């Protein structure tokens, strides 16, 4: 299976750490030029430097994905610098735990703006470029919480991530005639900052109940991402691939 991404240009939102960092590094290893986009410019620059140190091509861009001017500007800057935009990874997100009764309008809006509107903005900004070149890969990161709800008080997060699934299917239908695919990945529990608010007991309980016997690392998501980003995944569109070590079977 050929996953080579030489001469492809990728943009990863939330690329400064966690899953986004793993995605950016993996895309670069396969030959893609990578725009590392993050709200924290210093973290984006650090990942871009890692790619450059390994012999790859990367640029760091600060952007708030919940702002149209920011994300559309990042995509235009990437296309101008590298001549195209072939792969968009909508990874940026957040999750703030709150019970249903304690979820304020502001907290609800924050999750929707970052986790759902940010994906919409990315797709909207990338679509004209990908349609014109008649090739593109849009990969959006959802969550198993978007499929089954969140067990620890994350209704706003789960709602936004469920919205990503409906948006992905709609984008896939609309862009298919132009050779552009759109898919989602739904990770289970991954060792990123998102588990910082889990107690050690909660994490250990999850680990013991996990069919594969461990919590995922960001690198566990990379294989699926590369498949969807490459020619090898060119006949997959409108899908959500769950990468959770069997967590949904629990």
Q: What does this protein structure show overall?
A:
There is one protein chain. This protein is 45% helix and 15% strand. The chain has 250 residues and is an alpha/beta fold. It has one domain (9-243): Rossmann fold (3-Layer(aba) Sandwich), CATH 3.40.50. Helix 1 (18-29) runs parallel beside helix 2 (41-53), helix 3 packs parallel to helix 4 (105-133) and helix 4 (105-133) runs parallel beside helix 6. It starts with 8 loop residues before the first strand and ends in a 7-residue tail after the last strand. The mean pLDDT is 94.
What is the helix content? 40-55%
Stretches where pLDDT is under 50 for at least 5 consecutive residues are: none
Number of strand segments: 7
Largest sheet: 7 strands, parallel
Which structural class best describes the helix and strand composition? alpha/beta
Quick summary of this structure?
By secondary structure, the protein is an alpha/beta fold.
């Amino acid at each position: 299976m050929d996953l080579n991404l030489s001469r492809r240009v990728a943009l990863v939102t939330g690329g400064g750490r966690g899953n986004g960092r793993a995605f950016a590094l993996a895309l670069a290893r396969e030959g893609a030029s990578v725009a590392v986009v993050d709200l924290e410019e210093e973290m984006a620059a650090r990942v871009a430097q890692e790619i450059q140190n390994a012999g790859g091509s990367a640029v760091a861009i600060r952007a708030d994905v919940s702002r149209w001017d920011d994300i559309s500007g990042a995509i235009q800057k990437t296309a101008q610098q590298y001549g195209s935009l072939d792969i968009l990874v909508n990874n940026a997100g957040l999750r703030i735990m709150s019970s249903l009764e304690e979820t304020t309008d502001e907290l609800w809006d924050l999750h929707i703006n970052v986790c759902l509107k940010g994906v919409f903005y990315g797709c909207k900004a990338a679509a004209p470029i990908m349609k014109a070149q008649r090739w593109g890969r849009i990969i959006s990161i959802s969550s198993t919480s978007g499929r089954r709800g969140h067990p620890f008080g994350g209704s706003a997060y789960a709602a936004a991530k469920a919205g990503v699934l409906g948006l992905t299917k709609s984008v896939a239908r609309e862009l298919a005639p132009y050779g552009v695919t759109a898919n989602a990945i739904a990770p289970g529990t991954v060792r990123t900052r998102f588990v910082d608010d889990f107690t050690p007991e909660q994490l250990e309980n999850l680990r013991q109940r996990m069919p594969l016997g461990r919590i995922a690392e960001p690198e566990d998501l990379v294989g699926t991402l590369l498949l969807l980003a490459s020619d090898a995944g060119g006949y997959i569109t409108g899908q959500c691939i769950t990468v959770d070590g069997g967590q949904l079977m629990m």
